[in-house]
Design a protein that fits this description.
This protein has about 100 residues and is mainly alpha-helical. It has helices at about 5-15, 20-25, 30-50, 55-60, 65-85, 85-95. The protein has 2 domains: about 1-60, no CATH class; about 65-100. Helix 1 (about 5-15) crosses helix 4 (about 55-60). It comes from Pseudomonas aegrilactucae.
Length: about 100
């Protein structure tokens, strides 16, 4: 499993490598501008898929459906904690089923 602090960077790298046309289009830009363009294209792709960018990032870095489920639940637990909600309240509010605390 990829370390939490590295997930976004790895996902963006995988996204960029999977989109050679994008890399070709931005080749003449500075490194900073290239990163911005990749980030924006990544966010657009998430929007087109109807998911949040964090979820697209997870989809790009996981190795199995089980790992994706585990990582999604991890993010949801962090959000529940940040909001000060119990796990049960959060799951009910967000219609998350079969989720153990």
């Amino acid at each position: 499993m990829i370390a939490k602090e590295s997930r976004q960077a790895v996902a963006l790298e995988r996204f960029a490598q999977a989109n050679p046309q994008l890399l070709e289009e931005i080749a003449g830009l500075s490194a900073h501008e290239q990163q911005q363009q990749i980030q924006w294209a990544f966010e657009d792709q998430a929007d087109e898929q109807g998911v949040q960018p964090w979820e697209l990032a997870l989809q790009l870095i996981v190795e199995s459906p089980e790992e994706l489920r585990e990582m999604r639940l991890e993010v949801h637990r962090e959000v529940a904690e940040a909001l000060g909600l119990s796990w049960q309240e959060y799951c009910e509010f967000n219609e998350i089923e079969d989720a153990a605390p």
